[in-house]
Amino acid sequence: MDIQPYTTTETLAVGRPWLMSMLGIEANLSVTLDIAAFDQTLHWTEASAYQPERKLKSGIPLGKNATTGLYEPYAAVTNEVQTATVTGGPTGGTFTLTYSGQTTAAIAYNATAATVQAALIALSNLAPGDVVVTGAAGGPYTLTFGGTLLGDNVASLTATASLTGGTTPGVTMATTTAGGSATASDGTQKFAGFLFTEVAFHPTATKVAAPLMVHGQIDVAKLPVAFDPADVPAGSNTQFIYKV
Q1: In angstroms, what CA-CA distances link 2 with 6, 7, 8?
Q2: DSSP states of 92-117
Q3: pTM to 2 decimals?
Q4: Tell me, what DSSP letter sits at residue 145?
């Protein structure tokens, strides 16, 4: 019997589609990550059949926890969330929503969330991805803003109702989460930099050393975690050259 060894090679310093240019990159800082603060799928992938280590994705925005001194995912500013509630139990009619001077086409009283979202995205000042609408047919509808409005304090929508039936039917709007405010106060609300390379760690590890990128050209659209450089809180790292 002729038994030959099986060899496999995995390279960790790859997978940087978000890095537009290797030119001009300064020496990266060596930091320690708190593994427990990172989530599977969003931040890291499971081990492969021949490689027991898990891998943190490169390009993750990081912040430093002031208490532990360890680096965690950057606690980005909040995304705006608004709600639209159809009141009074109408049995017919329509309503419209207005965002920054633009008004949707008529929306049925019992419209699905997808229909409401489509009506909003059809506005000239909203693009696909700027708002996602969820909820049951007839509401309440939850409007979560992102895309070009990621982390922004979005103007409040208004509603105009032409509903029938029920008892004094109408549509009320409310802002449940204001966009643009910091989501943490432990230091991670200050952006420190990006994880420069993929980093392998054992499933039982609690901490791992990693390179923090301090300079470079970044394609924000290709980062593994949504990040808007326009929403970086005051006092954060400003050494980066952003190119979106």
Answers
A1: 13, 16, 19
A2: EEEEEEEETTEEPPPEETT--HHHHH
A3: 0.72
A4: E
- 220 in helix, strand or coil? helix
CA distance linking residue 179 with residue 129, whole number of Å? 16
Task: Give the span between the Cα atoms of 182 and 172, in whole angstroms.
Answer: 27
Say how far apart CA 15 and CA 36 lie, in whole Å: 23
Asked whether 60 and 73 are in contact (CB, 8 A), the reply is: yes
Per-residue tokens: 180: 């643009």
Assigned token pair, 244: 């979106």
For tokens 């449940």, what's the residue?
A: 176
Which of 213, 208, 177 has the alpha carbon at shortest distance from 197? Answer: 213
**Residue 230 three-state SS:** helix
CA dihedral (110, 111, 112, 117) positive or negative: negative
Which residue from 229, 181, 186 is spatially nearest to 61, judged by alpha carbons?
A: 229
Tens-digit pLDDT profile for residues 87-130: 999 999 999 999 999 999 999 999 999 999 999 999 999 999 99
The CA distance from 74 to 189, in Å, is 6
Show the tokens assigned to 38: 């990172």
Residue 117 CA to residue 138 CA, distance in Å, equals: 13
The C-alpha atoms of residue 97 and residue 113 are separated, in whole angstroms, by: 13
Question: Among all chains, which residue has been given the structure tokens 């050259």?
Answer: 241
Q: How many CB atoms lie within 10 A of CB 7?
A: 6
pLDDT digits (tens, 9 = 90+) for 61-85: 999 999 999 999 999 889 999 999 9
Spatial separation of the C-alpha atoms in residues 94 and 86, rounded to whole Å:
10
Task: Report CA dihedral (150, 151, 155, 157) to the nearest 10 degrees.
Answer: 60
